[in-house]
């Protein structure tokens, strides 16, 4: 059913009217938007993403805009709820008439908005989710930039099993499209090395009690547990395990890679591994002065330290504006698509892997790295994997 709906949405996207070509574009303004969780379980990172995008928009507008157009940036809150995401998309598409929705957070929330966006030829640009559905099936209106959760976990599990000499693997995952990607990645990664998943336990989106799930994996004797959660769920699962005297190796996807985890979870989070696509912007990072400068600029503007989702927000907005600039003054949806399908983005100050897009490839990069929480901070512990 999900595949059928996605295919139908793609067909609707191709059938967009000629009038939609200039949706959100005027002589002096380009109207774009994002949908973030500003009031739900992902609100801390949703606010970071919004602020990172706004910082880049402000920089562009201070320099006169892009090709003579100032950027009008609209923000809607969906509370990490797919139903609210649909309402937000309807407002942005039908009332605000935006050209693109950028960096929308959450797998299920993104999928819910596609039938609203694609008939009007509104672009879904670099959503903040690593689900494969963000670029499969191929659709000229969708672009992604993070290696899929499935691939990250499928490749990282065998690596950790080998390096740590682990023998039993379990998974604790969110019972939705996102969690299913982590579950499937874990299962297939184990199959690749002749192993099977020992136990699995799921939780509902928004859950706060993980005691039964942890007890289940502890009873199974697993020494590696993959985590299909985001911030609160990762902290809650690991914290519960430590209270139970259970200390396996925990592995999260890029959704678990946030400075908020060691900051809020404390010492208990040391030892957590996660896959990642860009580096947390620590202001005291003496090894990366441009990144430290950016982090100081962000804190000066917002009065608090930026995080990885601040970086993601800035990255996706910068990539969008680069493509808009290259598309030229006669901006239309088709002109943007044609430009994106020949775009190459080099490594940035956040350490992102280079990204390239073509007419048949709308995922910019399949590269990921492994990072580890050590003494309250994330430390990169592997080179990029590009299998």
- Widest β-sheet, arrangement of strands: 7-6-8-9-10-13-14
Mean pLDDT: 93
Overall geometry comes to: globular
The strand count comes to 14
What is the chains' assembly state? single chain
Structural class based on helices, strands and sheet pairing: alpha/beta
Radius of gyration: 20 Å
Strand content: 15-25%
Please name the defining characteristics of this protein.
12 helices; 14 strands; seven-stranded mixed β-sheet; alpha/beta; single chain; disordered N terminus; 387 residues; three-stranded parallel β-sheet
Compact summary:
By secondary structure, this protein is an alpha/beta fold. It has helices at residues 2-14, 43-62, 82-96, 107-117, 149-164, 177-192, 211-219, 231-243, 260-265, 289-302, 308-327, 333-340, and strands spanning 29-36, 70-77, 100-102, 123-125, 142-143, 169-174, 199-203, 224-228, 249-252, 273-276, 344-345, 355-356, 369-374, 377-380. The protein is 42% helix and 16% strand.
